[in-house]
Predict the structure.
Amino acid sequence: MLILPGLIDPHTHLRVPGGEHKEDFATGTKAAVAGGITQILGMPNTNPPLATAEVLQATLATAAQDAYCDVGLFAGASPPVIEQLPSLAPYAVALKIYLNDTFGDLRVDDVPTLAACFATWPRDKIIAMHAEKQSVAVGIGLAAAYGRAVHFCHISRREEIELIAVAKARGLPVTCEVAPHHLFMTTADYERLGPLADMRPVLGTPSDVAALWEHLGETVDCIATDHAPHTLAEKRSATPPPGIAGLQTSLPLMLTAVKNGRLSLPRLLELMHDNPRRIFNLPAQPDTHIEVDDETPYTITNEAMHSKCGWTPFAGWEVVGRVHKVVLRNQTIYENGQFLDKAGQPFS
Ligand code: DOR
Ligand code: ZN
Ligand code: ZN
């Protein structure tokens, strides 16, 4: 049995408020804990979005009641209320800017709003971006112009990771994360999964996936799930929303890669614990660990998923990395498939 620190997911969609039929704090954080994750950062593209102090405060209060692990939130940059941005900072760990279209209404594509974000968001809290293709160059340019750190979410393409490597070599303050689905699936999986494999960014070509693995040892800073649950009915509708669940499968997929010699266990811990904690300046979790079986193979099933959406694109995959026990601040909160205590705390 491996003993590891409680892992961190800096990119989760928990759907509170407004999307509770897809996920809520209880089901989302159960999926996290069953996947060995004890600290998560929730995304702001909810309905209404986490773009005012009132919505952020109310959402933190809900998390305090319902969460099984610790939860911090992103504030969302929203052009109509951008002048309120500094007032959101006390309730958020970081700012999220969406530069490309995805699920929800949050979107920034004018320079005055970007400038307001970089000029007014407090410097002690990082700015994260959903930026694809040439938007990555926009983010790097803003990091250079304002001399402040930018974190790129779910980088998925060769051209993007190579550009970030160039920016890092220049000493620019940029970091990035990669999602397991972009490491383990390609465009070929659309044939098998249809709309179930649709997400933003979309799945990459084999060359994109190879580039992510090539850069996993150095350029990539974090593994982030981009856990984005939608119901099967929604995914099979005429207008399927993009996104897949990922909290419960991230560690098993990555530990299976360790077993197959594709990365080392110390590197996994940098990507899933040390770097997210440092980049987002997250609170330490004393007396917290997980116990994981990294030897016995098992098959991922939809039935075993705790996410309210009840399905995973990885159903049928054989992996190692079943989590047996999770201890948060000296309290056993999960053991042999049972949830024992709701010990999650919100933080900002
Ligand atoms: O696939 C995605 N789904 N990408 C995003 O950026 C948003 C997410 C969601 O909220 O469903
Ligand atoms: Zn995104
Ligand atoms: Zn996301």
User: Anything to note?
Assistant: The chain has a mean pLDDT of 98.
